[in-house]
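#structure-requests
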Amino acid sequence: MKKAAIGLLCLLLVLGVAMAVAVNRLLQDTAMLENVLSNTLEREVRIGKLRELSLGVSSTVLIEDLTIANPAWAPDPYLLQLSRARVHLHVPSLWGDGPVVISDLTLVGLRLALSEAEENPPNWQFAEPAAESGDLGRESLTLPLLLKQAHVSDSVVTYEAPGAEIQANLSGQLTGGRGLLLEVGGHWQKQPLQFTGHTSYEGGGLSLSGMGEYRGWQLNADGTLADPLAFRGLDFQLELQGQLPMPPSRQQPARQLPLHLDVHLGGSGRSLSLSRGLLVSGESQLTLNGEIGNPATLRGLDLDLVFDSPDIKPLLPLEAASDRPVQAALEGRLRSDGKMLRLEKIVGRSGGVRLQGDLVLPLAGGLKGTEISLFAHGDSVAEALSPWTGDGAEDAPFELDVEGHWRDPVWHVEKLHLQLGSNRLEAVLALMPEEGGTAATGQVNLSGRRAHRALEALGFHVRLPDDAYLLRTELARSAEGELRLSDLDLQLGGSDLAGQFYYRPGEPAQLQAELTAKTLDMRFLSRSFDREVEQAGPGAGKRPFDASTPLSKAQLAERMIPATSLDFRWLKNYEGKFSLVVEELIARDDLRSQGDFSFTLAEGKLVSESLQWGGGFSSGEASLVLEHLDAGAAVNLQMQSHRLPLFWLFTGDPTAEQQSNYRATIAARGASVRELATSLNGTVYLRGGGGRINNQGLNLFFGDVIGEIFASINPMSQQEPYTQVECHSGIIVFEDGLATLDPGMVMRTDKVDIALGGTVDLDTEGLDLVFNTRSRTGVGISASKALTPYLKLEGNFSYPRLGVNAKGVVISGGAAFATGGLSILAEGMWDRWIATSANPCEALFDESKKAESEFKKLFGRPL
């Protein structure tokens, strides 16, 4: 045993001698130490002299003329230059949980030049950065370095980076005197930066104070730490105030928002407390009180938040529509278990809005574990929105309820409920953020009691029935914007629509729609017109048509057909197919039909594949081609129909047994409605039966011109609400915008026969039409004399004129006096053609060739 002890003692003695020899060698020659440090740091390290090196529990090193080179890209040759440094280090603190303890530090002539560049790592980074640990921090906050005494003189630290140039001067001693002084000056983001402060030991505790300024922000800090080694006894006051820039808006220029933060911190590194926390802007303020907990992990965070503002508008980067203040109040509790940050028991109110909810966020970053729950409601959406949108909002109570959570990589919106008055939106969605956008899948239900009013509230003015509606669909949207609506179910009043819709963005974008309607109820159109007729009353829309004053040049130049350009780019921007099958189309209670409509759109051309309809009130088919041109579009329409009611839908009731045929072939091209009208070519053919016309509805639907003419050629319409039509027929030929009634138009009522011929120029909008009427057998003498047998319509669309025709027929109110034998000729025409025909409408086509020469004499052109 004794021999072993002697052997161990000898070994320690040998080690001590060897260490002494090594230390002495290092003191004599620092080359070996320079090589070790240079290889470790991968930088050139030079040591002028190593004056002292003592090893033990408390080790001391004294070094002179130390330099560490910069990388080649740095503007300065050296990262560090040091004239003299003396360090007394407590070695066990290197392996402890607390700070590294240096009992005494002396620095003379320190020059530390820190640099950053966009294409290079910082010059103080000597190796590849270590991977970040998943550890959120230690159980207690500690200082990384604890200096018990320090003497610093002639020492400067500089920092250079794009947009930054800062210099810090260090001087003084930590214990005794005025403490260790720090002065910082320079520019950050081209703005001046200043800070001055000092730290010192007083009575075993560490004190710190300082003040600085940057971009008009002032910082004041003052406090003490009673036990720096254990980080206990913190008593710290922080004050920050300045102006926060707010972006400009359309109504006001850029402005400054004043902010003032005052916070008191206390406690220890294991549990900090915050009291008298106050953030103020004008009369608005946020107060914070409670426990910060462990600042290293935020475990134990438990803060009460209270916000109150008499007017929240100045705090928000939003444009207000009025000067009315918007009060706001919010309370909540901010908590954390070290892993998740929870904003709980949120309760707030503002402008009649009440809200409550909870929010959970992960402290480790990302979205894993995020949860949100929010419920808001109010009695008046108009009151809530009026400060931001004005007073035009549709008023109704509202309610919003949202619940969702993040399950990587998807946002699951488990509940989305929005109710505005009687309108309700219910949705369950899965949202997937991707680099190109957000993908989404889910189900959407939208319902309400008044469809028309709901659309008007959204700014859409569409003639739809103000009935209950329901929309249900499965939704799928890709991050690139591809949208698919499947299992689509739309119900509006008595109508329903089902099918699917697909859209894919691109050049051109792709569209696909396959829709089926079991019932398409269009009765709201005729009912709406009937209500307008009732509200208009007798004589509505009438105005005098003065025939004595010719039109001025300005009146002749005025146009009613709009010249506004039509945007046909959609023909080139989209491609796809659209189909709609209607099992029952209801136009009126007694008018029902079916339809099959399908279109294809490709290479700038819309082509109808099927336009067919059939049923009790009408049957027929049509074809449509709409082709994009460099300037506008070309339109070609062909149609033939049997028993098509035309204007009967709005002005009367067609007889169920009528046999009528309508045909049309029309072509036009242009970039506006006016250009399309003036290029119109084609023929419209009508050959139909009878029905009952609502006289007031006719005037309201077609305008006061037709109403005045109808009253002139059939004065009985002024005393009777309806006119009974037995037949109507005619042909209209269009040539480059000139509409010619050739051979004319004929209508027979139960009391009069009416013939019409002439032209309508869609280019000049000029009117040149002649009406010829004759009472039928059985009509009273007084009624027959009241007829206006010859009536001419002149002028244009904007200024129509009823006046003298080409043969000198003078029109005056309800009486007409023919001169020049025209009456005799007309009576001969009527006798041979109209009066002797059981059906003058059929005779128009049968006798048109025979009568053409006489019509030319009568009207100056074929009727």
